[in-house]
């Protein structure tokens, strides 16, 4: 293999949410841990011991409550603020080993190596040890000539942690063929449950079966992504490597309420909160939006919604909050009980180069929004906020066992005595 060949690596943190909870609680190192979803609804992350008890991802909390108590399993409400901050630190450590890092999700990132002349497997072992030493995060690394094969390699690294020491290299044809022959087709990256059922009807049961298929025929039967997946399994890179996340075409924020609500003022506060979060994401990706959709969900599963357009694309939170009030007046019914609310921004376009309408009287305040974002980034979320967000948050989610925000709130920083 030439030193100029490109090699992809996938670094994946094992049980990321659990690892984050253990990071500042060393007493949990050898104890079983489970993390629950929003409103403490169901299990979304767990350690190996909890999995060995037969607990599945998505199992409702009330079904496992007695099991947690019997086996003395520690459980936590999800703490996404903490997980997001640890994820950023994780990617910073990865950048010490290569300048090409593409975060894929909160707990996994792709790395690209090109022109690397040393032993790449040893390099990734050092990376694994460094992440563990600096952040106490256990990771596994998969290496391959394409992103799909790096995913396959990571699958085996996690499945055989002891024998592989957490690093698997599929750059050689011999190793690659063995790995694909023993990999069920539903475990291939991008092949979901429904698609795997259709493939099995074509007698394609393993990744090696798919590797040997005629990609043009399957492209006509399914999609161009199927063709790309087959070529990636053959070692030909087809999926692009994006170091910076691409701008979203729509931005959504929604939550279920901790308790059902009927009060219009509470609904307005919840929608204002979601609109504020959406506008922050909009400005972060340097975009403007020209319409907003707000929706509610009632106890009887009705979905009232309203879509409003602005006179001109904007990223000004105050304009969207005004639209929220108009939209809520249209869809609110005092005799209904509501259990969820959400906001979606639509018609998104880049702010750079946008030519404003000189006859439009809408007041845009980019300097104010920039100051708002700067202050909140420095002093914490909602250090300064619009009054329509309120203070009581009677609609907020249940989080009865959420850990402190150890790294992002001054009051939660651990104090040594």
TrEMBL record:
InterPro entries: DNA/RNA_pol_sf, DNA_pol_Y-fam_lit_finger_sf, DNA_pol_Y-fam_little_finger, DNA_polymerase-Y, DUF4113, Rev_trsase/Diguanyl_cyclase, UmuC
PROSITE patterns on file: UMUC (PS50173)
Chain ranges of the UmuC domain: 8-192
Domain of life: Bacteria
Database matches in Pfam families: DUF4113, IMS, IMS_C
Keywords assigned by UniProt, alphabetized: DNA damage, DNA repair, SOS mutagenesis, SOS response
Zinc found in the keyword field: no
Family: Belongs to the DNA polymerase type-Y family.
Name this polypeptide is given: Translesion error-prone DNA polymerase V subunit UmuC
